[in-house]
Amino acid sequence: PAQFVESARKGSIVSRATSIGSTSASSVPNTDDEDSDYHQEPYKESYEDQRRRARTQAEQKRRYAIKKGYDDLQAIVPTCEQQDFSIGSQKLSKAIVLQKTIDYIQFLHKEKKKQEEEVSTLRKDMMALKIMKANYEQIVKAHQDNPNKGKEQVSDEMKFNVFQSIMDSLFQSFNASISVTSFQELSACVFSWIEEHCKPQTLRDIVIGVLHQLKSQLY
After folding, report:
1. Both ends of the chain: CA-CA distance in Å?
2. What are the tens digits of pLDDT across the range 59-92?
3. Model's pTM, two decimal places?
4. Contact 75, 97 (CB under 8 A)
5. DSSP 72-132
6. Alpha-carbon gap, residue 189 to 197, rounded angstroms
7. Positions of the chain with pLDDT lower than 70, given as ranges
8. What are the residue boundaries of the structural domains of the chain, listed by start?
């Protein structure tokens, strides 16, 4: 009987322990299932994250565009490729690249203006040559049409008189304008006299006046 009572008591204790363990196990949440469900759900990016990512990408594109622009300028502008001994072998800063670019553009503007002036001068010279060519062609044509016309009509004496009258007119202005106090003054006066009294229009007026004067003497 004593053994039977002891066995019954032990069985009761084991039974209560099993019951308590089952109850405790049933009250604990199933974390494994919840973890598996959590990892299976995809991550949803918030609106703020999307805006932040878009701003970052835009800033990266802007910086890349600026860097590429400076690199292109440095490759195009010849002065940027030349060695600058003031900075040694260091990479050119953005400020230096911009300044060299501005200087080069100003240089190109000056060269363009200079070339335009040269082209304008060449056009004027070409126009003058065309006029002279047309005049000579008319003279040659007139001579070919009537080779004996005007022959022996103007004597050498008349030619000399025309030349003498022209030189006399020029000498009057030359004598009134030139100072012979020193060689320096003479040189300066000669150049100023040539610029003032030997212009094509001035010489033309002198020759026309001389011809009219001789014509009135002859007729």
Report:
1. 186
2. 999 999 999 988 888 888 888 875 554 555 567 8
3. 0.40
4. no
5. HHHHH-HHHHS--TTTTTSPPPHHHHHHHHHHHHHHHHHHHHHHHHHHHHHHHHHHHHHHH
6. 12
7. 1-43, 82-90, 147-154, 218-219
8. 43-113, 156-218
Output the CA torsion sign for 121, 125, 130, 134. positive
Check if the beta carbon of residue 170 is closer than 8 Å to that of residue 197.
yes
Residue 218: helix, strand or coil by DSSP? helix
Nearest of 193, 191, 147 to residue 174 by alpha carbon: 193
Q: What residue type is assigned to position 188 of the chain?
A: A
Residue with token string 């701003």: 55
Contact 79, 106 (CB under 8 A): no
CB 98 within 8 A of CB 69: no
Q: How far is CA 85 from CA 71, 78, 145, in A?
A: 20, 16, 74
Of 104, 64, 65, whose CA–CA distance to 82 is shortest?
104
Q: What does the alpha-carbon distance between residue 167 and residue 213 come to, in Å, rounded to a whole number?
A: 14
Q: Which pair of tokens denotes residue 201?
A: 């229009």
**Three-state secondary structure call for residue 146:** coil
CATH class label, 43-113: few secondary structures
Rg (CA), the chain: 54
**Phi, psi torsion values for 202, nearest 5 degrees:** -65, -45
**Cβ atoms of residues 100 and 70 within 8 Å:** no
